[in-house]
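Collaborator request, handled under Task 6.
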Amino acid sequence: MNYSSLLKRIDHKRDELVALTQDLIRIPTINPQGEAYAECAHFIGERLRKRGFNIEYVRALHEAGDSDKYPRINVVARYETAQPGKCMHFNSHIDVVEVGTGWTVPPFSGWVQSEKIYGRGSCDMKGGLAASIIACESLIEEGVGWRGALEISGTVDEESGGFAGVAYLVSKGYFSPPKVDYVIIPEPLGVDRICLGHRGVWWAEVETHGRIAHGSMPFLGDSAILQMSAFLQQIEQVLHPKLRQRISQHPVEPPGARASTLNINSIHGGQTEQSYRTNDKGHPVGDLPSPVVAHTCKAVIDRRFIVEETLAEVKQEIVDILENLKHCRHGFQYSLKDIMQFLPTHTDQQQPVVVATAQAIQEIYGKDAQYIASPGTYDQKHILRSGELKNCIAYGPGKLELAHQPDEYVDIEDVVNSSKIMALAATKLLS
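Structure tokens returned to the collaborator:
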């Protein structure tokens, strides 16, 4: 294949690439609840059908979150040449997190300014999805120099574990040889960097138990919220200092994530809060809470652990804190429930998909690729561990630090160059 012709073709598609990224951003695929998944999947599928791909829409029936109102619909598109060969798969998640506050531009506008495309999901990861689509379309239009198959998937729920997305497809054989040989996930980890894997994760719910009583006589009850505060104090004062001292030898980026971390994702105690307001007489409007001592309090912990730690050790640290409080704090009672857990992943640097992508980065940027690990998990965890497909990496445009932030954006030049690198890597693997 004439590499120069392929790269020029992608350069000529610059405006088309920007427009495609904007179109994808404008579909508000917010997770939760799973809005507009079907609309986005069909948008991708219809575009690729017109370009010769065979299209499958795969609904994860009865998986977590799936309902008729919010169907978990994945799209898988496959293009096969007349010559048998390997299959190169580009997998992108279509879901984005909630908008949040602090935006200065409309979050689903696809606003373009100063060579940047703004919007929720622009960086994570609709810019990468658009880049992979243009890369594959350009390869097909070139028409010569490669064989085998190209696949593109748009999958759901990555932001909440990927169980109705890639995990479901893995269970149905979509990510196993010989159907698929190589996978690139265009996560926003830097256009000159190859992500080989990620830290481990354990999500759990800690619940403290109290005793209900009248709010005017709290001494007759036992506040589960105050019991939870004792646990949180131990996390901040005892566990956090220990975690900051545990530094991985793996090149996790950003550098702050080379240490183990624990975040409190959410906390709730007592009665369900209302949006309290008053009328023009100063009287409260709507349902008011009754005066009771909170008898339950729940917190969700998000523990990210490095490859040098074991999952058993990670869990035991929390159990030890809770058990110690049970013995030294009057009335302390708790329960602990697993929500989600994944071990760290790592793809060997000598795997063909790594080598081909590194060569492509060298050709576009004139420098060696950096090899990194991600602070958070992504869908590689399902492909490597359940699908047992070892030729899987994350590579795509965007700065990881911008993901989930207000005024999220992706640089146009990065999207174009990453599309070139994806196309070159696919060419090397399928030639």
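The cover message to the collaborator said: "The mean pLDDT is 95. The CA atoms of residues 198 and 376 lie 6 Å apart. Please let us know whether this matches your experimental observations."
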